[in-house]
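Hi, here's the filled form for the chain we discussed.

Project: internal
Contact: R.S.
Residues: 440
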Amino acid sequence: MNKSWQISLVLLLILSLIGVIVSGTNPFELDPKTVPGDVAWMLTSTALVLFMTPGLAFFYGGMIQPKNIISTMLQSFVAMGIVSIVWVLIGFSLAFGDSIGPEKYGFIGNPFTYFMFKGVGGNINAALAPTIPLALFAIFQMKFAIITPALITGSFAGRVKFSSYILFISLFTIFIYAPLAHWTWHPNGFLRNWGVLDFAGGTVVHMSAGFAALAGAMFLGPRRDYQQQFHPANIPFVLLGASMLWFGWFGFNAGSALAANSIATVALMNTNIASAAAMIGFILFDVAMGRKPSAMGAAIGLVVGLVAITPGAGFVNLGAAIFIGLIASFVCNIAISYRSKTSLDDTLDVFPAHGMGGIIGMILTAVFAQGVGLFYGEYKTFLFHLISLVIVGGYAFGGSYLLYILTNKIIPLRVSPKSERLGLDITQHDESYINEHSRE
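And the returned structure, exactly as it came back:
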């Protein structure tokens, strides 16, 4: 057995024992201020958001070359395990623990506030979620932390070692995702106190993943067969994955209301209509450009719409949601087409879809947010959104690039040329989706 894996196994066992000691005897008693209806909705939303990560696995897996389909899907699946442990250990504390920093300018949470989920139970933290147990809020937020690094994998699919990937997503969760969540969603976070509106993760999830993906594609360089044309492994997988993402996204956006109320209803409605508009817009744009309407276009379009409406889902009206979906579909379609003509090998177009979709969503949220948007004569929110886009983009890109460098020094990121040629399914996992003789 590889020594680094042995050390990892022992470390995990030690951490589990520490968790037993830290947790102690903590009876899980519900706070009397708990609202049962809100708990039921948030339990459902939490499950829906987790369902999105297997959906992403099918979405990405169907797009890649057949020789890398298992490795690509596994990178999403394993995030559910790795990030869950990191979140319980320290991630939740860094994102939502006692804020370190001046009043209204918090930068990061105290890592010991909820270390190993100490104090996370049936009690309510009114500043974070006033009607549901803190444990439910923490687990709901965990699902967001899980899918964010999984989104990044599409940018370097087919050329990254599995062990180095595990190290990278652990570091990303701690040093990129948790600080961004604190800035944006913690009551003392400076972006939140600037009035930056991010209902369900336009900056925290999609922009961070998009810019990290851009950094990864630039750091790793193109695949050795980048210029060769290949057919996606399984387009029905892409449609299945997109459907699972659409279904789970109702928990992602409507669940971010943290209650079963009218805001959740508005967010669910806007999520559906923006995605529908983007899917149709993406197809129409393809046809207008001389391409045929395709299943891939429909799937990518609906996901782009989901990304773009995420920051404004609970803040804009139905007409704005349709407009946001359509604009995002046009911009992202153009970005994907442009990227394909460059030497940048963002394998599955994570930055053109999620990065650009997140940017469009954040800008248009500041335009159409009810009562505070530029459309209603207010400019302050719009200006702070522009500033936050620069800050978040710079931090996510620069920080992620440094993490790629650090990871590469500890465990080389890139697989060998032979492994890349044969495919990661066989060389990294000793498994294969296709018959050996039909391997590309």
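Let me know if anything looks off before we file it.
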